[in-house]
Amino acid sequence: MSVDIEQLKDIVIRAAEQELLPRFMGSERREKQDGSVITEADTAMQSRLRAELAAQWPDFPMLGEEMDESSQRRLLRDDAAGLWCVDPLDGTSNFVAGIPFFAVSVALLKGGRPRLGMVYDPVRRECFWAEQGRGAWCNEQRLVTRDVNLSLSQTVALIDLKRLDAALARRLAEQPPYASQRSFGSVALDWCWIAAGRGHVYLHGKQRIWDYAAGSLILAEAGGHAVTLDGEAVYHADIAPRSAVAALGGRLFNAWCEWLEIPRVIGVLDTP
Fold it and tell me: Which of 20, 246, 17 has the alpha carbon at shortest distance from 125?
């Protein structure tokens, strides 16, 4: 069963604008067992997407962030026919605090890898999307493969210090190799902003599959590069947290990985 991008856009955009925007700054926060924040907007958006995706593509079940872990693991074990992976509201803490930086993230997983990814920012009305082997886009503009003509010391870095090993976070704070650093609070949008050139290097210590499945494909299709801090591929069909190191251009990616002392990976760090 194939997925029509325009149909998917329509479902995701309408849901975000009808379920998220009216609740922005008006939803009460609750804390889940892991300490993360959840609101009525998260659950309403997930329910809406589950119903509408199932109505359009009934063969694909949905894994949502707001599901129990046993169901998430079971779904990931059997994604050969296709599986939606959804973060209904990425950036919930921003959403509750009134910070206009949040998104919905939807990926189609098949055979242990993302085949399609979409991240929609309803505040800016920006829809980032990609299909495997067909490039990446922001609305109607293609995200063109390019190298960044900057040294590492000239870059703007998107870094989440809170989830890094304390020694690495201290090293970054005391000896930053970049010109300046930002932390915006939405993993899915971080991937997309790097893909769009809105920031040059990226580092996050712990993100889940629903955070990165769509965004990592969008970056890859835009010509970007990413590995974990252990030098592995970021995408892994599991809900365990993964680190992510990324950059758009090959030379800059190599310099960033070398500074981070990531084990050399043939075919990744050798990218020209």
Answer: 17
Tell me how many degrees the CA angle 207-212-215 measures, rounded to the nearest 5: 145
**H or E segment and range at residue 271:** none
Taking the CA of residue 170 as centre, how many other CA atoms within 13 Å lie in the half-sphere pointing to its CB?
3
State whether 173 and 67 are in the same domain: no
Question: Residue 92 domain-assigned?
Answer: yes
Q: Residue 183: what residue type?
A: S
Residues 136 and 215 in one domain: no
pTM score, whole prediction:
0.93
DSSP state of 17: I
Q: Classify residue 133 by burial, with Cβ atoms within 10 Å: 0-12, 13-18, 19+.
A: exposed
Question: Angle at Cα 82 formed by Cα 235 and Cα 232, nearest 5°?
Answer: 10
Q: Which domain holds residue 49?
A: 5-142
pLDDT, averaged per 10 consecutive residues of the chain (272 residues), comes to: 92 98 81 71 95 96 88 85 94 94 97 94 98 95 84 96 94 97 96 96 96 97 95 92 94 94 62 38
- Residue 100 CB neighbour total at 10 angstroms: 13
- pLDDT of res. 131: 96
Same domain, 131 and 185: no
